[in-house]
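fyi for ur records
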Amino acid sequence: MQAAEDAAIGRQARGVGEIRPQRPQHRARRPQRSQPLRPAAAFGQRGIAGLVRPPQIAMAAEAGRLGRALALRHRETAQHSDRLTSDCTAVGRALGVAGDELRDLTFAAALHDLGKIGVPEQVLGNSGPLDDEGWRLIHGHPELGAQIIDPVGALAGAAVLIRACHEHWDGTGYPRGLTGDEIPLGSRVILACDAYHAMCEERSYQPAMPPAEARGRVRDLAGVDFDPRVVEALLLHLDRTDRSVTQA
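which gave:
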């Protein structure tokens, strides 16, 4: 299974999952209101199809195929989603998420980057600042990912989380500029976990950050990008597992 940007301390988790050099005046513009699936590891041998009714199996299978296509296109996305899913599930459980809501969170974490299937390679692999069109495409990928899986009834809850998984606690995220508790809890969990993993991983546009430094950055952004309660649960989980992202 496959899931800050300021001049001060490098608020590079701003584009969580897309940690890039600051876009000029980007923060001043408030938004308007893989091997991604590893069935044997998390959902049993039946995978997504095992959770949906017969009329939806074809659509579920198609979502899985698109996720695998994204994984083949970007190996880093596949590895990232796999580790992210495990941590999101653990953090969600620690925050009291259970039952169908936990299932939705696990699926959303695994498929949160599915919408990048519609982002050109030259944007995803860009090592420098993005232009306006590049940011438009990046900011649109959560909605695209949600639209891909939304028709599958069993994945509708996950689609809601994917649609909001780049919204920031202070309202400066995208695509709708939601704030605080307006953001679904599962989306807040994905945002913080996604930022931590993205910081720790080497990307075309950034070197890997030591896990201890990444934890400090996440802590600094509690109450800004991230729900403070989610940050507390994530850091506690990381301390308990006592591993770096590269060992996941």
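The chain has one domain: 12-247. thats all i got for now
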